[in-house]
Amino acid sequence: MGLFSVMILFYLLFPVVAIQLCKRFPAIDKLGAVVVCYVAGIIVGNIGVMPADFSKIQQPLMLVNISLALPLMFFSLDIRRWSRLAGKSLLSYSLQVIAIIIVAVAGYYIFAGIIGQETWKLAGMIIGVYTGGTVNLGAIATALQTDQTLYIAAHTSDLVVSSVYLLFLMTIGQRLFLKFLPAFEKGNGAEDDASFSFNSYDGIFSRRVFPPLLGAFGLALLIFVIGGLSFLVFSEDTAFVVAILVISTLGILFSFVPSIRSIRMTYQAGNYFILIFSLVVSSMADMSKLVTTAPIMLVYVSFTIIVCLLLHVLLARVFAVDADTVIITSVAGICSPPLVPMVASALKNREIVITGVVTGIIGWVIGTYLGIAVAYILHGISL
Predict the structure, then answer these.
(1) What's 3-57 look like in SS3?
(2) Residue 132 DSSP one-character state
(3) Most buried of the four, 2, 103, 180, 201, by CB within 10 Å?
(4) CA 16 to CA 26: how far, in whole Å?
(5) Closest to 76 (Cα-Cα) out of 313, 258, 279, 282
(6) How far apart are CA 355 and CA 358, in angstroms?
C-alpha cells in the first residue's frame, strides 16, 4: 500500500479514534472530536510523513467533505428558528467588517515604512480575505496587480496564523469571551439541543436510523454533484464559491421538508465529514513556513487578526452580542464559510451553523469590492 493510500485511510478513519477518545475520556470530550482531529492533523502535517505533491489530493478531499457535510448538517436544522438570530448575526458580522477596516487602515500607517510601496495593496487584500476569504484575496491581488512575492508571503502567513487562531477559538476562546460577553440564548427546542451530542453515534447503524440516513446521504451526494457542475462552467476560484452557494442553498431548502428534517442523525453524519475536513485542513498548515516566510509579514498578519478579534469583542460588548455569535461571525470573516461547521461543532452549538455560513457568504460577495475600494482610498491619500 502506497503512502498516498495510507494518508487517505488516516483521514477517513482517524475520526473514529477521536470519537472513541471523547466517549471514554470526559476531559477529551470537553475539547471535542473536532479539536482532537485538528491537533492530530497539525502534528501529522509537520513531522515529515506527508508524501510529496500530496496537496493535489488534499484540495479535492477538502471540497468533497465540506460539500457533503453542509447539506447533511442543514437537513436537521429548523431554519425558521434562525430568524430570531438574524438581526444579532448581521450586527455581529457588521462589527467584524468595521473592525477589519479599522485595523487594516491602522496597519497601513504602522507598516508602510517597513513593507514598502505596495502596503496600500496589502491593506486591501487583508480586508478582502478577512471579510470573505482566500478567493477575495486572490481576486484583489489580481485586480491591483500585486507583486507575486508579496501575495505569496501574505497568503502563507495567513494560513499559518489562521490555524493558530482557529485552535484558540475551538479550545479556550469561548470560555475567555464569556467573561466579557453574554452567553448564547437557545430558542424553542433548546431542551432537544441540551440532550444532543455532537460526538454520539450510538445506534447509527440500527434499522430505524441507518436506511433513512442512507437516503439523506444519497440526497447530499446529489446536491454535491449539482454544485460540482459549476466547475464545468467557471474558473476554479469562481466555481468553488458558486458550488458552496448552490450546495448551501439546496441544503437549506430541503431542511423545510418535514420528512427530511426528521431523519435522525443527519447532523452527526455531516459532523463526521467535518472531522475529516478538520484533519485535512490542519495537516496543510506547514509550521516550518513560520521561519521561511518573511518575518515582517507574519508580524503584520498576526497584528491584524489579533487586534481585529479584540476590537470585534470590544464592539460586541457595547452592543451586547453573545460570545458564540461573535466567534462564529469572526470565523466567517477571518476564515470562510466552509470552516464554520468545524468551529460550531467545537462550540457544541448547531444553531449557529447557519449564522456563520450566511454571513460568510455575504463576506464573499462584498469582500472584493470593499478591499479594492479601501486600497484605492489609501493610495489616493498617500499621493
Answers:
(1) HHHHHHHHHHHHHHHHHHHHHHCHHHHHHCHHHHHHHHHHHHHCCCCCCCCCHHH
(2) T
(3) 103
(4) 16
(5) 258
(6) 6
Chain centroid, CA 238 distance in Å: 18
Kindly state the cell numbers that stand for 368: 472584493
Conformational region of residue 338, where left means phi above 0, alpha means psi within -120 to 50, and beta covers everything else: alpha
Lowest mean pLDDT among 62-71, 292-301, 339-348: 292-301
Interval 127-166: pLDDT, tens: 999 998 776 887 788 788 887 778 778 877 888 888 899 9
Give me the pLDDT at residue 282, please.
82
Helices (H), the chain: 3-24, 26-31, 33-45, 55-75, 79-82, 86-115, 119-129, 134-143, 148-168, 174-177, 190-194, 210-228, 236-254, 258-261, 266-283, 289-292, 295-318, 323-334, 340-347, 353-382
Burial of 66 (0-12, 13-18, 19+ CB in 10 A): buried
Query: How much of the chain, in percent, has pLDDT values that exceed 90?
Result: 37
* In the chain, where the domains are located: 3-382
For residue 182, give the C-alpha cell: 453574554
